[in-house]
Design a protein that fits this description.
Structural class: alpha+beta
Number of strands: 23
Strand order of the largest sheet: 3-2-1-4-5
Number of helices: 16
CATH architecture of the largest domain: 2-Layer Sandwich
CATH superfamily of the largest domain: ATP-grasp fold, B domain
Distance between the termini: 73 Å
Largest sheet: 5 strands, parallel
């Protein structure tokens, strides 16, 4: 086709495990991958995985989010395109707009689509136009006392609970729940401050809260020629403060209901003129009614579980679509088989409100293996937990033909994982995968709140971890200090 543009190089405007993931996809496509890094990240794995790397500043964090520096790095390294990965920059239309102005191709949806769908109130209106049900909402709240009055008028009409949401929100941020007038009055200024800090936009709106809904999302791919396919659903109900902890594919709902949700997602993508990869999210109530929640105009952290059950590489299709290639798969080619679970192994202490284990060093790192095990990470033996970036070490994704195959494989993999140094979320996930409700496949967004016993685990160091730690110490000191 005449509109196909062959990339020679793409710049990855991100760090850590997602940068490594995109590097691998680009290289497999025969394209050179260019990484960016701040001074703190000079020796991290994503820098060494790429074909070349460009230093963008001393940081920390600010240079990764500096659009001018990203464009400069792409031009300096003669890239034709920029892949944002996931995170704030991936959903910022200004990056896509800057790429367009600089003659670079943004690997994602068009600028106007990102801008429109990034505004939650516009995204909701478009959902209604597309025939999707939406949860009752207030519209944007005015500032000051007028906003408080509008909020209380909404609760008088629809009752509690209600969800305060940032208009520019995403990734579970900027969401607060209120169960009474007093809580709403308390949460309003806090939500506004959080929204400004996270998104630079303090606008808020209210939604009627559902009681114990399931969070189901649909992965879609759309090319520039009108072909849109869904890749099945994912269940992301197990959350803490609206941040996903465990992601599962398929959607863990009735097949007919999942089919209807997937078809609704495709209809929404078509109505909005969407192209590239995206995720349409829904809440499902106890009557199996589903409601549009939001759309993420980027790659998701949990895309790995969809790739596991379909065998389709989402990132490579992102790159091909942006080059102008038609999708090489039809809806009939997408066969969702088996089950996959992803858990995010962070250097955090779940018992201390998931506090990050800042500056601790991974003295021993031994990962599990075997059938159906996938690891996406940047950790290694000697890795120091940064104080300036997130605490994600590795994403563990397991696949199995049945749900019981998958849960038992996850338990085995978690128990075989040895990370010595920082506390991690591993023992917390072991408790989840042994819990009866989880094993039954029945869970909702209040799962963590209903199971405080998940935090009641003993932080025992296994014998193999002790041996590995001793061997690492001997290797470092060149002798056994316990024989002195």
């Amino acid at each position: 086709m005449k509109n196909i543009k062959q990339f020679k190089k793409i710049l990855i405007a991100n760090r850590g495990e997602i940068a490594i993931r995109i590097c691998r996809a680009a290289i497999e496509e025969g394209i050179q991958a260019v990484a960016v890094y701040e001074t703190f990240d000079e020796e991290t794995r994503h820098v060494h995985t790429a074909n070349e790397a460009v230093w963008i500043g001393s940081g920390p964090r600010k240079d990764y989010l500096d659009i001018d520096r990203i464009i400069w790095a792409a031009k300096k390294s003669d890239c034709q395109a920029v892949h944002p990965g996931y995170g704030f920059l991936a959903e910022n239309p200004e990056l896509a707009r800057a790429c367009e102005k600089a003659g670079l191709i943004f690997i994602g949806p068009p600028v106007q689509v990102i801008q429109d769908l990034g505004d939650k109130t516009i995204a909701r209106r478009l959902a209604e136009e597309a025939g999707l049900k939406i949860i009752h909402g207030s519209g944007i709240l005015p500032k000051g006392q007028d906003g408080i009055d509008s909020a209380f008028n909404f609760t008088k009409k629809y009752g509690y609970p209600v969800m305060l949401k940032a208009v520019a929100g995403g990734g579970g941020r900027g969401i607060r729940r209120a169960n009474s007038d007093d809580e709403l009055l308390e949460q309003l200024p806090l939500a506004e401050k959080e929204s400004v800090a996270s998104f630079g936009d303090g606008r808020l709106y209210l939604e009627k809260g559902l009681i114990r809904p399931r969070h189901v999302e649909v992965q879609i791919l759309a090319d520039n020629y009108g072909k849109i396919v869904h890749m099945g659903a994912r269940n992301c109900s197990i959350q803490r403060r609206h941040q996903k902890l465990v992601e599962i594919a398929p959607g863990m709902i009735r097949p007919e209901l999942e089919k209807n949700i997937c078809e609704a997602a495709v209809g929404y993508a078509r109505h909005t003129g969407y192209t590239n990869a995206g995720t349409i999210e829904f809440l499902v109530d106890h009557d199996d009614q589903f409601y549009f929640l939001e759309i993420n105009t980027r790659l998701q952290v949990e895309h790995t579980v969809t790739e596991a059950i379909t065998g389709i590489d989402i990132v490579r299709r992102q790159i091909r679509i942006t080059q102008g290639m038609p999708l090489d798969i039809s809806q009939n080619d997408v066969l969702c088989r088996g089950f996959a679970i992803e858990v995010r192994i962070n250097a955090e202490d779940p018992k201390q409100n998931f506090a990050p284990e800042i500056d601790k060093v991974v003295s021993v790192y031994q990962s599990p293996g075997g059938p159906g095990i996938r690891l996406d990470g940047m950790v290694y033996q000697g890795y120091k937990i940064p104080a300036v970036y997130d605490s994600l070490l590795v994403k563990l994704t397991v696949y199995g033909f049945t749900w019981s195959d998958t849960t038992s494989r996850l338990e085995r993999a978690l128990k075989n994982f040895v990370i010595v140094g920082p506390k991690t979320t591993i023992p917390f996930y072991i408790k989840i995968v042994q819990e009866k409700e989880f094993l039954s496949g029945q869970f909702d967004t209040e799962y963590i709140e209903r199971h405080p016993e998940l935090f009641d685990y003993r932080s025992l160091e296994r014998e193999e971890a002790k041996i590995a730690k001793l061997l690492a110490l001997i290797h470092h000191k060149k002798y056994n200090p316990f024989t002195e």
